[in-house]
Each structure stands twice: as structure tokens, then as C-alpha cells.
Amino acid sequence: MQYQKEEVKQRILDVAFAEFEKEGYYKANMLRIATRAKVPIGNLYRYFNGKSVLFEALVGEAAAAIPEFVKISYLQNAEGIEGARSEQLRNGILAIFERYGREFMLLLDRSQGSKFSAFGSALRKEICDLWKKAFSRGEEDELMIEILAEGFIGGSLKIFRLAEASEQSELLDRLMKFYFQNIKNRL
User: Which residue, 10, 27, 34, 71, could crosslink 44 as a Cys pair with Cβ 3.0–4.6 Å?
Assistant: First the structure.
């Protein structure tokens, strides 16, 4: 019986992460991962019996945690996001991104062809639906809320993709104030 070694498994995961980041799920290649991880291809399949299993090992936890964070944040902030609530939400977003940032980007940008390919659109829809519940005063607000939610999501992602880690907190705080401060009266 072959025993799995934790350092070999971690090396495979590290190499696979880089492969998926570079090539995306669809173009990622198990033989290339095995070669770069310096393990025989058969041994790679003993650890992960397919590309989908390997990809899920990398992003599965994030794919569950991020939507859960969105739902919890909504429940905690359904009455509005002002003052201390705004700061708590900002800190929560920063923490979830610090923990799952690379995985989140894989899910959004590089999951085409995997079972997670609809993750980004499903998350956007969930956020839009929650915003509609929280901020809508009627059907006439729904399109505007979708537009605002898309802007906030896109702006947040741009901050995490382009801003230095030391700037992210302030930029996210400014973005949140722009979108949420007195939102019900501004719709």
C-alpha cells in the first residue's frame, strides 16, 4: 500500500495553483503539473484522481466560505451600513480576501470549464438579490440597485487586483461610503 506524504501533496497543490493561475482550469494540464511538481503522473493521480478533484481541493473551501460571508454580512447589515457597521463590514471583506484572495481570483477569472465556472455570476446575482431586499422601495429601484451592486463589486475587485495591500483598507472604506452612506435616501 502506497502512503501519501504531506510534503508531496503540498508540492502538488502549490504547482497546481500556479498552473491554474497561469492557464486557467480548461487549459491546465495534469502532466505538466506532475512534471513541475517532480512526481510521476501515476503518483499525482493517487493524490488527486483528476483535474476537477485537484481544482476543488484548491478552491472548494473558498467557494463555500465567500457566499456564506456574503449572506452573514447581509443579515448583520440589513438595516443599513453606517458608522461602526461599515467598519466591521470593511474589515470582514479585507479578512475574507486576505484568507481566500488567490482562490477567489481563480474562481472568478480562471474556472472556465470547471464545475465552478458559474461562481462569479452566481455570487453577483446573490449580492444583487440581497441588495434588492435591503434597499429596494419597489420595482422601480431594482435596476438601479443592480447597477449599484455591479459597480460596488467591480470596484472592490479592482481594489484587490490593483491596489497595494497597505492601500486596500482605505480604498475599500471610501468605496463603501460612496455606495452605502445614506443609500436608502439617495435611491
Answer: 34
